[in-house]
Amino acid sequence: MISNKARYALRSLIFLAERHPRPASIAEIAAGARSPRKFLETILLELKLDGILDSRRGRMGGYELARPASEITVADILRSVDGPLALAPCASRTAFKPCDDCNDIENCRIRHILLEGRDALAAVLEGRKLADLAKVPSAHEELS
Length: 144
Hints:
Distance between the termini: 40 Å
CATH superfamily of the largest domain: Winged helix-like DNA-binding domain superfamily/Winged helix DNA-binding domain
Number of helices: 7
Structural class: mainly alpha
Largest sheet: 2 strands, antiparallel
Number of domains: 2
């Protein structure tokens, strides 16, 4: 189950992708993403630190995508705010470590199924881009 934090991050990034290239203030993002402003401030900062968002100061400033929505995967977003996709640290590709009570990681019967589940989930989430979730015209549609 994804966290509320991840849900708010996804809604915020969809909002920003749909209004690209115009940046948005935290207040605008909170309203557009139906997300609590105070909680959103922390989420947006995490997304900025992970290179998903940029921010600009000033009257015409705000938050904007750091790269095109077609280059940001759903997995990137979820990892940024919720951490690894795996259900256990021993099944993680990005934050691997043996479980605390593990005696034999190579022969663990539980780990193998968790690796399969992680790989299946990652294949879907890494294959979907922010642009797939947002109403973002393709390069072909922009030329028409």
